[in-house]
Amino acid sequence: DLDAAKQELEEFIPHVRNISDNSIRKMAGRDLARFKQFKKQGIAVKFGRFSQKENNQIRKNIEEFLLSTGIDSAEKLLFTSRYPEDKDTINRLKADHLFCEKLSEGIPRPWRLIYYRARKMFDSHNYKGRYSTEEKEKLKKYHALHGNNWTKISQLMSRSNLSVAMKYSEIKSAVNYGAWSKEETRKLMHAVEEVIRKRIEKEDGNSLSSSEKSHREISIDREALYDKLPWTEIAAKVGTRFWRQCKQKWTTILTNKMNKGQPLYRGTKGIQAKINLIKRLYEMKVEDDNEVDWEELSNAVGDVPKAYVQAKFYKLKVSCVPLWQKKTFSEIIDYLFEEKLPEFEEQL
């Protein structure tokens, strides 16, 4: 029963009523029993970025499934349509050996998200660097021929489905990469205000008239100014910037407001902020950046949004830690603490 499935899933996925009926039916079959089992173990359903531990669990689940079925590669398992001569055999093995259950084993997330993550991890067409001018022209041509058939276009370009779809959305939109104009900044601030007001009004219900809602002052927690804002919706309202550009610009605006326009991360202040950040991260003893409470950590740098601290940490590891992509989060922190912290303290 669809209504019963929605009601049960809502305990684990609060936004489930915004999901299509077809997706809910699939989730009821693939996820509901797993979610109940995780609940018994005291484990909450997760969303957002996958942790290193979860990525390792996906690799383990894939390797075990390949061993049990004799399928000779993760690419054949996850991108079966690329191998038409083996397609029927692989699909039969996936059904017989309960592929859905095995892939999601030990991971408290919706199956669909685990599947997408696995495809991203094991796609040989992924991580191929920037698009050349020639590739961009080919992408335009293939889209004119095949429309939004990203599977077909990805095969022609030897790039992942997601990569070609995202790149085409960049090419077709009138995106500005330069400095923000006053008009763009005004649009951004208006768009953010609009989504925050809608959120507040939804929580308040219909207790106020529409004219009162449009004119009243609103008072909100600081965190609501930057946490979980719908950036794709905001970017669509701005019209000339990607969602990530909008998020970065909004973080800059907030940081300047919070610090009354004073420089925050320069000279001795900047060095001290790096020292504080490294020490606090080292003291936390966490294994993954998803376990870091960035909101609590923000005062290590100053009165700033958590996105500002995350951006500063990213720049720190990229500029200071050799081969950081191949290191775990805890290895990165250990390197910064043991190798770079003494240098920063000496500079200070």
Automatic annotation (TrEMBL):
Q: Which GO terms describe its biological process?
A: termination of RNA polymerase I transcription
Any matching Pfam family: Myb_DNA-bind_6
Q: Which residues form the Myb-like domain?
A: 172-254
Q: Which domain of life is it from?
A: Eukaryota
* GO CC aspect terms: nucleolus
Molecular function GO labels:
chromatin binding
**Protein name, entry field:** TTF1 factor
Q: What is the lineage of its organism?
A: Eukaryota, Metazoa, Chordata, Craniata, Vertebrata
Q: Which gene encodes it?
A: Ttf1
